[in-house]
Amino acid sequence: MTYDEQITAIKKFSFEKMSGDATGHNFDHIQRVIKTSKRILQTENADSLITLASAYLHDVADDKLVDDPAALEQEIKEFLTSIDFNNEQIAEVIYITHNLSFSKSLSKNPPKLSLAGQIVQDADRLDAIGAIGITRAVYYGGAHSETIYDPDIEPRRQMNKAQYRNLNNETIINHFYEKLLKLTAMMNTPTAKKIAEQRHQYMLDFLDEFKAEWDAEK
Ligand code: ADP
Ligand code: NI
Q: In sequence order, what DSSP letters do the residues of 108-172 get, joined into one string?
């Protein structure tokens, strides 16, 4: 298979797996992560097939989204074999999709990602901040019946995935302090860091405006 044929096949596979999701992981998230990964690839010398394959597949076997992540991971492996990925390439894509998450980055021994993995991680995180990030947080909060804001809630400290999932008094604004405002400092590549800084400032401005309006100061 040619490179273009492989990319087309991965896109189709990802679309089929992701398009039914209503938690902010819709295929439009994947397409933005792809676009941003391509932008970062222009200044970073990474393997573009591994980068884009990992970007397309990074949420397919997410344990927050599917009941049986191991089965999906097996499906991904079989799919990649069928489009001529060798074992080493498959292992790298699986490793990246497995180790991308915020909670893994906060763990005691954060996984070391290849440059391809770092790019996808940056692109995924850039999609969680700025105007898109604000929209996704509100969308997610609505879907999970979160309150908008509670000035008495102290930003919680780092939590793992299971704790996040079981959180029932999370607020949308609190999510900015728990996660979104931490992402800029965690960017891997200089290109992503630069984009993140602008988006970060946009969120800070938004939070200032939000609180001023909340207190009827504006
Ligand atoms: P990803 O796996 O793509 O990094 P998540 O599954 O953690 O993202 O979340 C999907 C989107 O929903 C992200 O934009 C994230 O910021 C937002 N989100 C996650 N948890 C919450 C929450 N408790 N409240 C508001 N938004 C959230
Ligand atoms: Ni994602």
A: SSPPPPPHHHHHHHHHHHHTTSHHHHHHHHHHHHHHTT-BS--TTPPPP----HHHHHH-SS-BH
ipTM confidence: 0.97
Q: How many angstroms does the Cα of residue 216 sit away from the middle of ligand 2?
A: 36
Give the separation between CA 135 and CA 210, rounded to whole angstroms: 14
> Is residue 84 left, alpha or beta, with left meaning phi > 0 and alpha meaning psi from -120 to 50?
left
Q: What is the pTM of this model?
A: 0.91
Q: Is 134 near ligand 1, meaning CB less than 6 Å away?
A: no
Ligand 2 centroid from CA 214, angstroms: 31
8 Å CB contact between 69 and 27: no
Q: What is the pLDDT of residues 144-199, one digit of tens each?
A: 899 999 887 755 555 555 655 555 568 999 999 989 999 999 999 999 999 999 99
Cβ within 8 Å of residue 189, ≥6 positions away: 40, 43, 44, 118, 119, 122
CA 74 – ligand 1 centroid, Å: 25
Taken in order of first residue, the domains within the chain and their CATH numbers are: 3-214 (1.10.3210.50)
Q: Residue 147, Cα to own-chain centre: how many angstroms?
A: 23
Could you give the CA distance from residue 57 to residue 94 in angstroms, rounded to a whole number? 9
The letter for the amino acid at 102 is F
Q: Which two tokens stand for residue 6?
A: 């492989």
